[in-house]
Amino acid sequence: MSNTLQAPYDHWRNRYLLIRHGHSQANQQGVIVSSPEHGVTNFGLSEQGEHQLAQRVADWQWPIPTRVVHSDFLRTSQTAAHIADAFGLTPSVETRLRERYFGELEGQSDERYPSIWVLDAQDAEHQHLQVEAVSAVAKRMRAVIDDWEQTASGETIVLVSHGDPLQILLTALAGKPLGQHREQAALLPASITLIGP
């Protein structure tokens, strides 16, 4: 697989609001939680994260969403619920939006992330320590948008995911080498990025 995915669409059928989950208990504890075994039922939003989402909804300045789609991790499910409740929508789970799996680093300090990002910059295919390859993350994240572009039109779709997957997706959509995903401006918890027309 090449280091870049197909360039962005010439014509977008939908708008997408890419939302990183709010500040989580994993962020609070400085721990890597990337496995569904741990992340789906545990490590939801922190109190800070709950406040962030309440503030986002109160100060909403983006297009009004028509759909809310989210990773099944607890922190993203809770983030999606805040957005969906505010607009009278029913959120739906999309497992392809899950956190990037960090393999043997699961449960370790989040200070281990940079060592993987250095390897990412050298090779988007690497799976050192059983970490999910950047190329694999890009493929599944891009497939979510591809599917919506083929099946819907005129929608504003909220996609609630995680920091690394969203930065990798934005890198792919920009047509840049995937190993450069950490050169994207960091997506802060509860940040919202609009893509599309």
UniProtKB/TrEMBL annotation:
GO MF term set: hydrolase activity
Classification via InterPro entries: His_Pase_superF_clade-1 (IPR013078), His_PPase_superfam (IPR029033)
EC number: 3.1.3.-
Gene3D superfamilies: Phosphoglycerate mutase-like
Top-rank EC class of the record's enzyme: hydrolase
Keyword vocabulary terms for this entry: Hydrolase
Family matches, as PANTHER family: PHOSPHOGLYCERATE MUTASE FAMILY PROTEIN
Stated name of the protein: Histidine phosphatase family protein
Taxonomy of the source species: Bacteria, Pseudomonadati, Pseudomonadota, Gammaproteobacteria, Oceanospirillales
